[in-house]
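Protein modeling request. Please complete all fields; requests missing the sequence field cannot be processed.
Requester role: graduate student
Desired output: 3D structure, token encoding
Chains: 1
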Amino acid sequence: MTMAYLWLILSGACSVAASVALKSAGAGPSTALPAPLLTQALPYLMAVGAYGLGFGFYALALRQLDLTLAYPLMVAFAIAGVFGYGLLSGAESISAMRMAGAAFIAVGVFLISK
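Delivered output (114 residues):
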């Protein structure tokens, strides 16, 4: 059963990686010169790959955990990862209201797991 939680953490981490890749793709190139097609497509390809890998980890977790527990935990790990990215990178503003919302989600996931 312990491995199932590791799979959920890895699935959430893949979701975060995919979201960060999509965010960077949306930022676009910083120069006026057009970038080669592969360079433009690379963040999208990375996001698809990360989502695919995360799907595989999630499928492994579902072999051992109930769906009603696995999904909220996986999403909670992803939310924590996105907040961690925002705090560490400084690329996102994290307000007290957002932190309170994340705390409420964490409490809800804790209650679901009992």
